[in-house]
Specification:
Elements (H helix, E strand, L loop, with lengths): L2 H14 L15 E4 L2 E5 L12 H14 L14 H14 L3 E5 L2 H12 L5 E5 L4 H9 L3 E5 L4 H8 L7 E6 L11 H10 L3 E5 L14 H4 L6 E5 L9 E5 L1 H10 L1 H4 L6 H15 L2 H18 L5 E2 L6 E7 L1 H13 L2 E2 L1 E3 L9 E6 L6 H15 L9
Parallel strand pairs: 2-12, 4-5, 4-6, 6-7, 7-8
Antiparallel strand pairs: 1-2, 3-9, 8-9, 10-11, 11-14, 13-14
């Protein structure tokens, strides 16, 4: 076929499926998003507590840059591990009740590193079928056998665990799922893995900072401590990066065998300073979490009679299933025409036939913002030509 033909064919197919993705240059962030001089209320951000704009966190990054410079200068195994990193790891571990925390440059890198370093050919990975792409991709590329269980169904995991495995078993799930916004039954899943001598890995990217006492996340809220917990800093923390929480010996193992730690430049120490400030804001952030909770309740109370499927989510992620790709894109465009920025999610990011508006709410929004979103949604949904799950 040839390389260029392969590339062209793939791009044509994406266009024909109405699944072509584009990056959009914008200015600003937080509650408002500006593009080409037009300002939009932003309902697509994962900055759930609005901390990306917090002056204390911004100041901490600036102070860190003055002290350490703007980069780390190397891998943490060479010269890239500073006292700023060590302090942040220690405080995150103490906050979440684990012996150790290891910092990664992103949640994607953390998930890939854990699976790649742990799994061997005789092992198996049992993953919730809606787990994040970083987890499923790492599992598929590992030498272990990958089996996927029905979404949020402990009985389905139980059946897989009962099957024979000559090696070790790692069960994988998210705390709050990024596209559906629902929560995993972590207590039941952990009880099953413990009963079968398996380990549980939880990616709590969308739960950390938002739920649980002091924002400690989904696992704390449900009273479990999985063997491997990944928390990311690009959502409620308002910054970027991630941490893996685990035991002392497991942390030492990853320092020896996790290639993403060994061969990758570590996060800038100034970023670690900003994350330290963000951690304090989250620990003291009950008012922000309460405000976000009121916005979620307001939205759900007003969206129930829309001619789309409102997913059973009580998180900041509030998906409205439209169904058809073209219809989802059309609704998103009409919202933008009214000054509201809402993203349409289509396959392969979500299952075929479940194209949706992925609406995210934040503590930075106001009650009036939520009311405006609901009013425009109702107006757009009932325009001539819009139907239910077209």
């Amino acid at each position: 076929m040839g390389w260029q033909k392969r590339v062209d064919t793939a791009l044509i197919a994406r266009h024909e499926q109405d699944a072509y993705r584009s990056r959009i240059v914008n200015q600003g962030g937080g509650r408002w998003l500006t593009q080409q001089g037009q300002r939009y209320l932003n309902f697509s951000s994962n900055d759930y507590l609005g901390l990306s704009q917090h002056p204390t966190i911004i100041g901490a990054w600036q102070t860190g840059a003055t002290r350490y410079g703007v980069g780390s200068g190397g891998s943490g195994h060479v010269t890239g591990y500073t006292d700023a990193h060590a302090v942040l790891e220690g405080e995150v571990a103490q906050w979440l009740g684990y012996p150790r925390a290891l910092l990664f440059v992103s949640g994607y890198a953390a998930n890939q590193a854990v699976v790649a370093a742990l799994m061997q050919g005789q092992d198996r990975i049992l993953a919730d079928k809606l787990s994040h792409a970083s987890l499923l991709e790492a599992a598929a590329q590992s030498p272990a056998t990958l089996r996927r269980f029905a979404h949020n169904q402990p009985a389905a995991l139980q059946r897989l665990l009962a099957g024979y495995c000559p090696g070790e078993t790692l069960a994988v799930t998210e705390g709050i799922f990024s596209m559906d916004g629902d929560s995993a039954p972590l207590g039941a899943l952990h009880a099953l893995t413990q009963a079968h001598g398996a380990w549980l890995m939880v990616d709590d990217a969308h739960g950390i900072g938002v739920c649980g006492q002091q924002g400690r996340g989904s696992c704390w809220q449900q009273g479990i401590k999985p063997e491997l917990l990944v928390v990311t800093f690009g959502k409620a923390f308002g910054v970027s990066g991630a941490a893996l929480l685990c035991s002392e010996s497991v942390a030492d193992y990853f320092l020896q065998f996790a290639r993403h730690l060994i061969y990758s430049t570590s996060m800038p120490p100034a970023q670690a300073c900003a994350l330290h400030a963000a951690l304090f804001c989250i620990q003291q952030g009950d008012a922000l979490r309460d405000r976000l909770g009121r916005h979620i309740a307001q939205f759900r109370a007003g969206a129930g009679d829309l001619p789309f499927t409102l997913m059973p989510s009580h998180s900041a992620i509030q998906p409205l299933i439209v169904g058809d790709n073209v219809a989802a894109l059309r609704v998103a465009q009409r919202l933008r025409e009214q000054g509201l920025w809402v993203s349409a999610m289509r396959p392969p990011t979500v299952p075929p036939g479940s194209a949706r508006l992925r609406i995210t709410l934040t503590a930075s929004h106001t009650g009036d913002d939520i009311a405006r979103l609901l009013a425009v949604l109702h107006s757009v949904a009932y325009e001539q030509g819009e139907g239910v799950n077209e």
